[in-house]
Design brief:
The protein is an alpha+beta fold. It folds into three domains: 36 residues, no CATH class; 95 residues, Nuclear Transport Factor 2, Chain: A (Roll), CATH 3.10.450; 122 residues, Immunoglobulin-like. Helices cover 27% and strands 34% of the residues. Strands 5, 6, 7, 10, 11 and 12 form a six-stranded antiparallel β-sheet that branches. A four-stranded antiparallel β-sheet has the order 1-2-3-4, covered by helices on one side. A hairpin with a 7-residue loop joins strand 13 and strand 14.
């Protein structure tokens, strides 16, 4: 019997190569052909298994999903889960984490973008009294947890364009003031205006922190002149103390810092000046006219 089965298998393998044998034994070819076509299903079956499991693993590690899960837990009152998902990275204890959410009734988060493990968000927090505060920034996610955040309060800058000398107060309480100190010849030690015939317009900027520390060394100050709004060149003069804002990179709440800024302006354009000040990276620019 075994010899007969072996003869059939051998005939099936050699059937396609020996055409004359195939003609004399058509029955053998028709019975062996299906055996060769049934082989692919056994190799194709395992390929379907990974494709059904991959999305679940990807979703669990998705940084945007972690951020949504964090806020879902807060809104559900599951503070322990929110603390485990990353709240522990932003406060010293679970109790202080919960205390920070006491007057918040809902937090609506919108994912505005992702870049690797960094998730950009916009958050509208609604307090128990119905008031809302909007925040923007980023979270960094690693191993399924929030590990770092750069979140700041946002709001429209003051609408008015005051004259220099009038302080501007942001919605969060931060104050910026500017005062024009007049003009002076550009000294030989100054750097680095192109035209030495210009005059040096000197401005003193004052920044007063609100309830949170800021970095005033990141302030950006610029000046335009003339009816066409030409950009003035910066003037730096260490001998005269015109070096911008110098001092600590962390300005404590309710503390003030001053800085002198110089700009090269044609002598006949000093009556058409607009100063723009951005006090730090988290606040929009404001302008002062002169």
């Amino acid at each position: 019997m075994k010899r007969a089965i072996g003869a059939l298998v051998l005939a099936g393998v050699l059937g396609l190569a020996a055409c004359t044998s195939a003609k004399n034994n058509n029955k053998t070819m028709t019975t062996e052909a299906p055996a060769t076509t049934q082989a692919p299903p056994s190799t194709a079956a395992p390929e379907a298994t990974p494709t059904t499991k991959a999305p679940a693993a990807t979703r669990a590690a998705d940084p945007a999903h972690v951020v949504r899960a964090y806020y879902d837990a807060i809104n559900a009152g599951d503070y322990q889960r929110a603390f485990n998902l990353g709240g522990s990275a932003f406060t010293s204890s679970y109790d202080s984490f919960v205390a920070g959410l006491n007057d918040t009734s809902h937090e609506a988060v919108t994912i505005t973008g992702t870049h690797g493990n960094v998730v950009s968000i916009r958050l509208v927090a609604t307090h128990d009294d119905g008031s809302t505060i909007t925040f923007e920034g980023t979270y960094t996610v690693r191993s399924g947890k929030l590990v770092a955040a750069n979140i700041h309060k946002v709001g429209p800058p003051p609408a008015a364009t005051p004259k220099a000398g009038t302080p501007i107060t942001y919605p969060d309480g931060l104050k910026v003031a500017a005062k024009y100190l007049g003009t002076r010849p550009i000294s030989e030690t100054a750097c680095c205006p192109t035209r030495k015939t210009d005059v040096d317009v000197v401005v003193r900027i004052s920044i007063t922190a609100a309830n949170t520390p800021i970095d005033p060394t990141g302030a950006v100050v610029s000046l335009t002149y003339g009816k066409e709004g030409n950009q003035a060149e910066d003037v730096s003069d260490s001998e005269k103390g015109i070096n911008g804002i110098e001092g600590p990179s962390k300005l404590l709440p309710h503390h003030k810092v001053n800085g002198l800024f110089g700009f090269a302006v044609p002598p006949d354009q000093v009556n058409h000046l607009v100063l723009t000040v951005q006090p730090d990276f988290d606040h929009d620019p404001v302008t002062f006219e002169h």
